[in-house]
Specification:
CstA; single chain
Length: about 475
């Protein structure tokens, strides 16, 4: 219990202390005209109240990510607390703030354009494809999972019917002005998600659940290594590349650069707190990781969330659980397709004021999305997880170069970029969906060693290339 409470305190202190350090290094200008003021178009560039932008940003980057990811990460025990706290403060929140503010300074540009400006045209082209693929995967994941849950609740209605209803809603939310649907509904869902998490956290403490203390022990029942699997499993609660695709959306809605820390850095810290609460709940509610593993095997994270909510919060909790596992992923799915539309529009310079132009891009995206709905969900999720963290890694390298180019302390982005390079490289080598098939007959410990060494080597190479580029720029 002490570790859990100290972890929450650490996240809050991280916002007030490290968040201010990051803000001071970037140097927001409260007198500058933001894109929402200069480029107001009534569709994507719409100035909104700071509280609204915070809640929309929080819901966009969260959805069920800090819930489902934290539940999965709880399989490794309280080591999850360490990753959430340090990952969130020094990597995830820094990543979200820098990308959001870089976009703000470049007329709300998408992450692909920001990467291209700082890492070159080839990186831009790669990032355009990579980010659109990731966004479509996010959208598809958040079509199929809530549709399956709704079918489980109302068995008389086929899953495909719910899929169709969700897609129609996605299409509407993707093309309508941001303040018409997203600006009105999302702040309400954001508040509900926060209330749900706080209720669970208070319930755990009041009802005396035994939350384990931080130790160096690996609690995973199958002995799966903590690194890098934990860092991939808990993404949205620590660091997530999906956030880099969402922050530019709110960068087009901020009325003042000084709002950036509260909206971007603050939303990530809030998500970290939600992840901490759900990780603690998953660890303690089932009496340990073996019980949690058994519950996950009976229907995945959605079943775990439903059981915990109903027990800790009663009927109210059950209603909130349905909201959490159905409505919240839908709210992330539609903004994923919206971000994909904006990314493609930025890439080809296609104005999005006329509604017909929005449909021209949106319809092909949804055709691809519908086709992917028929692929096994577990396969989609595994590839989404790795590509998500890889996008975050590339975004951090772009932020590092941006800070260096502007004579600022780039180490706040360089260190997490180096660490995440090790994570994603190691994971793709040792994971079942990666290159482990080329190591048949080789002991697992040897494969993991090869993966970790490869990650460290690639991270050092990237750092050396970066330092060389600094010397070249200085000359």
């Amino acid at each position: 219990m002490i570790s859990f409470i100290l972890s929450i305190i650490a996240l809050i202190l991280g916002y007030f202390i490290y968040g201010k350090i990051v803000e001071r290094i970037f140097g927001p200008d409260e007198n500058a005209l933001t894109p929402a003021k200069r480029l107001q178009d009534g569709v994507d560039y719409v100035e909104m109240d700071e509280k609204k932008t915070f809640l929309i940003q929080f819901l966009n980057i969260a959805g069920t990510g800090p819930i489902f990811g934290a539940v999965a990460g709880a399989m490794w025990g309280p080591a999850a607390f360490i990753w959430i706290v340090f990952g969130c403060i020094f990597a995830g929140a820094v990543h979200d703030y820098l990308i959001g503010m870089m976009s703000l300074r470049k007329d709300g540009a998408s992450v692909a354009e920001l990467v291209g400006d700082n890492l070159g045209d080839k990186a831009k082209q790669l990032m355009r494809v990579f980010s659109v693929v990731l966004l479509i995967l996010v959208g598809v994941v958040f079509i199929t999972s809530p549709a399956a849950i709704l079918h489980d609740l109302v068995k008389s209605v086929p899953t495909l019917t719910f899929v169709g209803i969700i897609i129609v809603y996605y299409m509407v939310a993707t093309v309508l002005p941001i303040d018409k649907v997203i600006g009105k509904i999302y702040p309400i869902f954001g508040i509900c998600l926060l209330i749900m998490a706080v209720g669970i956290g208070v319930g755990l403490i009041v009802q005396g659940y035994e939350i384990p203390e931080i130790t160096l022990k690996n609690y995973h029942p199958q002995g799966v290594s903590v690194f890098p699997y934990l860092c991939i499993s808990i993404a949205c609660g620590a660091i997530s590349g999906f956030h880099a695709t969402q922050s530019p959306m709110m960068a087009r809605c901020l009325g003042n650069e000084k709002q950036g820390r509260r909206v971007f850095y603050g939303a990530m810290i809030s998500e970290g707190i939600v992840a901490l609460i759900w990780a603690a709940a998953a660890m303690s509610f089932f009496g340990g990781t073996p019980g949690l593993g058994e519950a996950l095997g009976q229907g995945g994270a959605a079943v775990v969330v439903n059981r915990i909510s109903n027990s800790v919060l009663g009927k109210v909790g059950g209603a909130l659980a349905i909201l959490g596992v159905v409505a919240c992923p839908i709210t992330s799915g539609d903004t994923a397709f919206r971000s994909a539309r904006l990314t493609i529009a930025d890439a080809i310079g296609y104005k999005q004021g006329p509604i017909l132009n929005r449909f021209v891009i949106a319809i092909p995206l949804f055709v691809v999305g519908v086709a992917l709905c028929f692929i096994d969900f577990n396969i989609l999720w595994r590839y989404f997880s790795w590509s998500n963290q890889t996008l975050a890694t590339i975004a951090l390298w772009a932020a590092t170069k941006y800070l260096a180019n502007n004579g600022k302390n780039y180490k706040i982005a360089l260190i997490p970029a180096m660490f995440m390079t090790v994570v994603v490289t190691s994971y793709i080598i040792i994971a079942p969906e990666g290159f482990v098939r080329f190591f048949k007959g080789v002991p697992t410990s040897t494969v993991e060693l090869v993966g970790n060494i490869s990650g460290i080597v690639l991270s050092l190479i990237c750092t050396a290339v970066f330092m060389k580029s600094l010397k070249k720029d200085n000359k």
